[in-house]
Specification:
The chain is mostly helical. 83% of the residues lie in helices and 0% in strands.
């Protein structure tokens, strides 16, 4: 998997988390909080990977 593929997969996962939260798929407030936290951590990981691999 190339760097570009890896970043694209992370973006895809982040978008899925946002979509699930926004559409009310995650009706549990704790699940929405966890999805938000996961999205935040994923964005930080993405920045790290971009910096490290560039």
């Amino acid at each position: 998997m190339t760097r570009k593929d890896y970043i694209a997969k992370m973006d895809e996962f982040a978008e899925l988390l946002v979509k699930m939260g926004c559409e009310g798929f995650l009706n549990d407030p704790e699940a929405n909080t966890a999805a938000g936290a996961a999205q935040y951590e994923l964005s930080k990981l993405r920045e790290f990977v971009k910096d490290e691999l560039s």
